[in-house]
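Task: complex structure prediction.
Instruction: return structure tokens for all chains below.
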Amino acid sequence: MTDGFRFPVDLTSIMLFASALGETNRIYYDEEYAEGTSLGGVIAPPTFSIASAHWNPNYFLRGVRRIPGPTSESAAAASKPSGEEKRGGGGGPNLTRVLHGEQRFEYHRPLVPGMVLTATTRPGKSWEKQGRRGGQMRFSEVITEYRDEAGERIVTETSVGIVTGQVVGG
Amino acid sequence: MSNTRVELAVGDQREAVVVENLGRTQIVQYAGASGDFKPIHHDEIFATQAAGYPSIFAHGMLTMGLTGKLLTDWFGDGVLRSFGVRFVNQVWPGDTLTARGTVTSIEARGDGNLVAIEVVTENQKGEVVVQGSATALLGR
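Output:
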């Protein structure tokens, strides 16, 4: 649970995100074109709010801090050649066993440059399941709600994370 | 694209190749843009030696974003009301992904037609990588 963190939305971040998706749709970066459409300006692609991770003070995927658990020694050793430094601090999930199971977005209004959103997260349901490929799997939902400066809901995300008992796939 | 008026009926389908021969560079680009720096998506040594995967693999959210292109190219910009997927199989460097959407219902409302779509994205072997649904509100 967070009290809420700021997520300022800007044109460059939207363009970079759209570009990473291989988008050629000008609504995501061409202001002149976008102003001539019924939307009246650039908007963000449907999954863009996920990039609020850059602003989330509690985000555990912003670079590797520590890989606890049974694989920690090999992980730390293996990561050295790539220049990953093992940093201090504890906690956090074992990143070799964390998977993204599901993602849902509920849209109220498109994200546009200049919006300053406040994101609040809360835990949703959690459950366990014996997986065919992943061993014992623990599922947990995190719900993130984004509101604009007037307090209006803009988008709501539900993310289901899975911690697996073993490597899945390949 | 945002001004497109779409004539639709239940059962309508659309299919599109949303990425061809997915490159590691695009996966890294997505890591930077999204802020998801989980090493399993960019650090080959971590992915293979520490985690035991055959190689790095794409963020599920990259596949979802690519799948979203099918919907926005079809229905227009800024019209989605919901979009959700389950990540079924991993997407690996070199994969070519085809997304397919099917209109499952159209509900007339005061503010337009709420169109429900089922969506599935498959790799070049025909394996489902993501599966889900979306709704779009279209003007009449």
